[in-house]
Amino acid sequence: MSANLPKYSRVLLKLSGESLAGSAETGIEPSVLARLAEDIHDAVRAGCQLGIVVGGGNIFRGLKAAEVGMDRATGDYMGMLATVLNSLALQDALEQRGLPTRVLSALEIKEVAESYIRRRAVRHLEKGRVVIFAAGTGNPFFTTDTAACLRAAEVGASIVMKGTRVDGVYSADPERDSSAVRYQKLSYMKVLSDDLRVMDATAVSLCKENGLPILVFDVTKPGSILRAVQGEAIGTLVGDDL
What we know:
This protein has 8 helices and 11 strands.
């Protein structure tokens, strides 16, 4: 395969909200947003159809709010709205670089985003538009990881790519355990049985049931998104019969 062509023609990229915040860990850091937008631009221009789910943890995290007494469903809905803010910021950054982008929200907010309809999402992807899926699944008690895997299955993505701040999945926390080993490949069952925290169990199970591989890679390295869609051996690949 030519180095100029993507290995994966349709990809669901999962970004954490924290990945937009940079070292600040909260809010949106403009320089980080701009660099991510450049990397996404390069991947799309290489021929990849790209859907994106971005979390909201840099603004609000419903689970933590529930831990201090807030109603869990209320907290999760607030978290969904935080993902809409991040999605709009990412859309603006991408469109400044000439990429047509659509935000499709699982919650109806017609003034700022289209409502999520599967056929509409697929059509946007076929036309070369970046599709950002906002507001999670639209239901409380589900993470944006699960939302990413669900949308990937719905639109027929080849793979779910989870961009993180580490270069893959380790046997232990590499910052605390110097003997931690990075896995190059893992089975779904290994992830679930060893509780490796690649994604939550619902998300991993959904990928397993639908034969969707998961790539965990360091999205903070410039050019990593393009390298990932081209199939370079970066990060950790999760699946069966790899």
